[in-house]
Q: What sequence folds into this?
């Protein structure tokens, strides 16, 4: 049976190796999985400028929303693709604030680009799940940040209720 090691064991072992060996390990990691390579690239090139990275991801997702197909099934499929991209970057950044900003932006784009008359249930579920994720993420923040993000969240809910006839904002309000 092959023994598996936890992160603590790996961290202890990495402390005993020289810089060259660690570079070789990182290069091997990057070679075998696309997501490992993307994470390494983020950590090396974009982690020091979080604000710029957030803005570029928001711009990219906005472009993807502008290219949504008109067919409900294809639109839902494209939105899931956008969410996979956002969730990957949320995982890379490890920041609740970034998660909230990405998801708020996703919801705003949904309101702008999705068919407001549509009653296609998978599309509605995509939107409502993101609202629930935002609400949970806001609850984990410091009080001052909670207030700021809850204001943005509630404003977005008002806009959603005015544009999406199937949506009722009262179920998703965040009380701070």
A:
């Amino acid at each position: 049976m092959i023994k598996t090691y936890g992160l603590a064991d790996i961290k202890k072992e990495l402390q005993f190796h020289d810089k060259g060996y660690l570079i070789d390990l990182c290069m091997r990691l990057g070679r075998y999985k696309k997501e490992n390579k993307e994470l390494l690239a983020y950590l090396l090139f974009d982690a020091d400028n979080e604000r710029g990275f957030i803005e570029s991801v928001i711009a990219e997702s906005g472009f993807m929303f502008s290219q949504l197909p008109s067919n409900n099934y294809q639109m839902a499929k494209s939105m899931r693709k956008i969410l996979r991209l956002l969730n990957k970057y949320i995982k890379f950044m490890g920041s609740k604030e970034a998660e909230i900003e990405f998801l708020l932006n996703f919801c705003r784009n949904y309101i702008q680009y999705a068919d407001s008359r549509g009653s296609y249930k998978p599309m509605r579920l995509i939107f409502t799940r993101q609202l629930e994720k935002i609400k949970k993420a806001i609850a984990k923040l410091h009080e001052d940040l909670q207030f700021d993000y809850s204001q943005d969240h509630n404003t977005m809910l008002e806009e959603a209720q005015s544009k999406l006839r199937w949506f009722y904002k009262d179920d998703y309000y965040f009380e701070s």
Remarks:
- The mean pLDDT is 90.
